[in-house]
Amino acid sequence: MIKADNISKHFGKVKAVDNISFEVKEQENLILLGTSGCGKTTTLKMINRLIDPASGNIFINGKNIADEQPEILRRGIGYVLQNNGLFPHYTVAENIAIVPNLLKWDKKKIAGRTAELLEKLHLSTDYLHVYPNELSGGQQQRVGLARALVSDPPVLLMDEPFGALDNVTRANIHKEFKALDELKRKTIIMVTHDVQEAFELGNRICLMDKGKIIQSGTPADLLFKPADKFVETFLKDQRLQLEFKAIRLTDIWELLPDQHTKGNSTLSADTDVWTALENFKFVNAETINISKGHNQVKTIGFEQLMAAFNQYKNKQRHE
Ligand SMILES: Nc1ncnc2c1ncn2[C@@H]1O[C@H](COP(=O)(O)OP(=O)(O)OP(=O)(O)O)[C@@H](O)[C@H]1O
Ligand SMILES: [Mg+2]
Asked: What region holds the ABC transporter domain (predicted)?
């Protein structure tokens, strides 16, 4: 759906983006991950023509965006700016209504859609007529998201949308983000410098450094088939937790003992190992059941789960 083909952008001597290529499939969530200054924002801005690349091409649905009017192009793209980018002299309602007004929606339609989004994003309608500086950082980011989603564009670009949040609030917003139906049908490119966030929300990750893509792949690819030392070092501190989140019960299914006792709480095999481990604590049980497909069920204990997890990791490393 989105394809960047050898794009570059230099600012004077700084190679902000240095000849990178990537593709995003329809309804996929691609993460641009990397440290400050590696070119993430510049890459994102080229996709909706806030910046034009010095060389290379970008295609959306097969059309070269260089041939499109920026204003028309942007109607199909929601953009959440780094630091939310709300207009300080516009109220929440006015900020959200910017695109609908450009599209000449009538007042009733705008109000209806705004109310619907506020509810989905858990923001009270009491805030409709306040200014952004009267909101907390987390509330401002929700308004930024509402503004990007209001016209239901097929493509969403998000620049560190949860950057300003503390860990607890961020974890809550991640859960909501994953549960939002509206987002499931969108093709999303999201920028972050937070490894956990990238692993939690991304189908695929492009890890960038100094304007280049060092590796692109699934979270498991980055963990178990790192392209080089840079990738390994980047993930090192949080490795174990990332592994727990990247591996699903279905991945380790064959390594789990084949036994079944009735009457336990049951998890789907699509669950990641991290969630399964938490489940032991949550239901305070010795064993839990895992179901796969229509009729396969296995009963496992904590130690059996850990053993299968470790075996799986060893196998991955030696493949
Ligand atoms: N308008 C500009 N003029 C000059 N240099 C720029 C401009 N925009 C970006 N740069 C430089 O290009 C490089 C990449 O910047 P960019 O904003 O894309 O980084 P980033 O990965 O988004 O960083 P951060 O995580 O801090 O937001 C940086 O070295 C930056 O200083
Ligand atoms: Mg940036």
From this structure: 2-235
Q: Which ligand is nearest to the CA of 40?
A: 1
Q: How many domains in the chain?
A: 2
Is the beta carbon of 11 within 6 A of some atom in ligand 1? yes
* Domain endpoint, select from 213, 244, 275: 244
Q: Which ligand is nearest to the CA of 210?
A: 1
Range of the domain at 302: 248-318
CB-based contacts of 304, cutoff 8 Å, min separation 6: 256, 257
- pLDDT tens for residues 73-113? 999 999 999 888 899 999 999 999 999 999 999 999 999 99
Same domain, yes or no, for 90 and 126?
Answer: yes
CA of 45 to the centre of ligand 1 (A): 11
Pocket test for ligand 1, best of 11, 18, 82 (most atoms within 8 A of CB): 11
Tell me which of 15, 41, 46, 194 to substitute to probe ligand 1's pocket, judged by most ligand atoms within 8 Å of the beta carbon: 41
> What secondary structure, in 3-state letters, does 93-160 show?
HHHHCHHHHHCCCCHHHHHHHHHHHHHHCCCCHHHHHCCHHHCCHHHHHHHHHHHHHCCCCCEEEEEC
Query: Which of 223, 244, 265 is a domain's end point?
Result: 244
pLDDT in tens, 25-37: 999 999 999 999 9
Residue 228 C-alpha to ligand 1 middle, in angstroms?
24
Q: Compute the distance from residue 275 Cα to the ligand 2 centre, in Å.
A: 31
Residues 164 and 180 in one domain: yes
**pLDDT given for residue 166 in this prediction:** 81
Side-chain-side CA neighbours of residue 201 (13 Å): 34
Question: Per-residue pLDDT tens for 238-275?
Answer: 999 999 999 999 999 999 999 888 877 889 999 999 99
The CB of 207 under 6 Å from ligand 1? The reply is no
The phi, psi pair for 205, rounded to 5°, reads: -125, 135
Residue 48 sits in the same domain as residue 186? yes
